[in-house]
Amino acid sequence: MIVGEQKDIEEIVEMLDREEFKSLLIVGCGTCVTVSMAGGEREVNSLAEVLRLYYKNKDKDVTINTDTVKRQCDFEFVDKLEEEINNNDIVLSLACGVGVQHLVERYPDKIVLPGLNTSFYGANIDNGIMAERCIGCGECVLDKYFGICPVARCSKSLLNGPCGGSQDGKCEVDPEIDCAWELIYNRAKRIGKLDELIEYQPPKSWNSYRDGGPRKLTNEEYSS
Amino acid sequence: MAEYISNLEKRLKAGQFVVCSEMGPPIGADPNFIRKKAEKLKGYVDGVNVTDNQTAIVRMSSIAAAKIAADEGLEMIIQVTARDRNRIGIQSDILGASSLGLRNVLCLTGDHQIFGMDEEAKNVFDMDSVELIKTINDMVNKGILLNGKEMEVPPKMFIGGAANPFADPFEMQMIKMQKKVNAGVQFFQTQAIYNIEKFEYWMEEVRKLGLHEKSYILAGILPTRSVKALRMMKKHVAGMDVPEEIIERMEKADDRKAEGVKMAVETIERVKEIEGVSGVHLMPVAWEEITPIVIEKAGLYPRPEVD
């Protein structure tokens, strides 16, 4: 899933203070960022409470409305917001960056502000702990590394082995980070494929990543 | 195009026990800083590394500093890390360095930018050290760039890499070392040795794989006079192995400078006896002036002639 983190309230308020409005719609997203506990219905409601208090203390007349759709990255759900969006002066989206831009695309006359920082593609590894697992490079190499991605999980994205800076299985960059190469090595040993790691891996093509320009995918079968 | 003679390669091929050292360029643009350092090393060493923005701190470029020192008569080893430049920048630098007459290159992954003063920098790592070695080897020996483009005048370089006898996981590090050899590395400079027993064990493994016959191995020596530095290296420098008795020995010493020199000389004498070690690489941190003294005391001065 896409993991997000809510921006600090100070930053949100600073963003909002740059705009002129009487009514604000906070829109949550019911998929990824709900799971990462950053932009679902619960977070939308608590942010709304905080902002109501903020404007009350400032003696400012602002109406705050809320809604959460299934997915902000899908017009099917975004279209359902039309009436509400028209009824409010500005919008604060608690979706990932994709959702924010999708709202802008559908409602080009409206100011839409981002309430989250889109962090990474990750997995829930423990209660409330999410960790990066993929960078969406567009050319999956997991077969070569027995299911552990050095591109996403090695701090230097090394393809031919560890850097010499890991200690006790932890990355030199941060002892909280597992050394990806230690994981790859252990996994290779476990499944009896250590000898395969001797194979030279050439520099990766980054053409399928965003180095080749913003990406677009067309599914011929379904595109009209 | 400058004439190609890597004196370092010549010496190693002739079977000399070589001595290399290291030089950190200034944070600034003063060429005399390099000239002064070069003056002190002249006649004592067979090759001098110039670090490439070591610990991710902006300094004069390795190639520029190496050229200044080479003009003073030193044999230079440029360092190239994959942290700051992509494949386009690195290959371009290799062509430039070769055309300036620089003859040796040490290929490194590079310290992560988090260790420097520009934590917010975008890290590149378009290539890793193995890919770097293979790419430069293909440029030199096949006359082609990474993209396959042929060059009329290819660069000439004696190609080095790093090896760490103390890094984890040991077996995986040996695999990586083999990959470097397969990629065309010609010499290795090792991480600094304080745990000589562990280094001896590592060399045993190196000999089992025959890597010492396919490359020259230069043992890393880090002279220091500081207990604090030893503690810092033990605790904070990943991939360094500083046994407690070394720290105790330095603590007890009346004259720490003399003890530091003595320790370095002892290590040199020990590694000299190990089969497959072709030389030493001295890399004092903030104590570069000690290099000639250590070399003299180790009986490695004057340096033999090279033809």
Fold blueprint:
The complex is a heterodimer of chains A (224) and B (307).
Chain A: E1 2-6, H1 9-17, E2 23-29, H2 32-35, H3 41-57, E3 63-69, H4 75-78, H5 82-87, E4 90-93, H6 97-106, E5 111-114, E6 116-126, E7 129-134, H7 150-153, H8 180-190
Parallel strand pairs in A: 2-3, 2-4, 4-5
Antiparallel strand pairs in A: 1-6, 6-7
Chain B: H1 7-13, E1 18-23, H2 31-41, E2 47-50, H3 62-71, E3 76-81, H4 87-99, E4 104-108, H5 129-142, E5 158-163, H6 170-183, E6 187-192, H7 196-208, H8 211-214, E7 216-221, H9 227-236, H10 244-252, H11 256-272, E8 277-282, H12 291-297
Parallel strand pairs in B: 1-2, 1-8, 2-3, 3-4, 4-5, 5-6, 6-7, 7-8
Helix pairs in contact in B: 2-3, 5-6, 11-12
Structure characteristics:
heterodimer, A: 224 residues, alpha/beta, Rossmann fold, four-stranded parallel β-sheet, three-stranded antiparallel β-sheet, 7 strands, B: alpha/beta, TIM Barrel, eight-stranded parallel beta barrel, 8 strands, globular
Short description:
The complex is a heterodimer of chains A (224) and B (307). Chain A is of the alpha/beta class. In chain A, 29% of the residues lie in helices and 20% in strands.
Report on the architecture of this protein:
The complex is a heterodimer of chains A (224) and B (307). With 224 residues, chain A is an alpha/beta fold. Chain A has two domains: 2-119, Response regulator (Rossmann fold), CATH 3.40.50; 137-211, no CATH class. Chain A has eight helices and seven strands; from the N terminus they run βαβααβααβαβββαα. In chain A, α6 links the parallel β4 and β5 (111-114). Chain A starts with a strand and ends in a 34-residue tail after the last helix. In chain A, 32% of the residues are buried. The model of chain A has no long low-confidence stretch (mean pLDDT 96). Chain B has one domain (7-297): TIM Barrel. Chain B contains twelve helices and eight strands. Chain B has an eight-stranded parallel beta barrel with strand order 1-2-3-4-5-6-7-8, surrounded by five helices. Chain B is globular. Chain A binds chain B through residues 155-169, 172-174, 179, 181-182, 185-186, 194, 197-198, 200-203, 206, and chain B through 82-83, 87, 109-112, 114, 123, 125-131, 134-135, 146, 162, 164, 167-169, 171-173, 175-176, 178-179, 182-183, 191, 238-239.
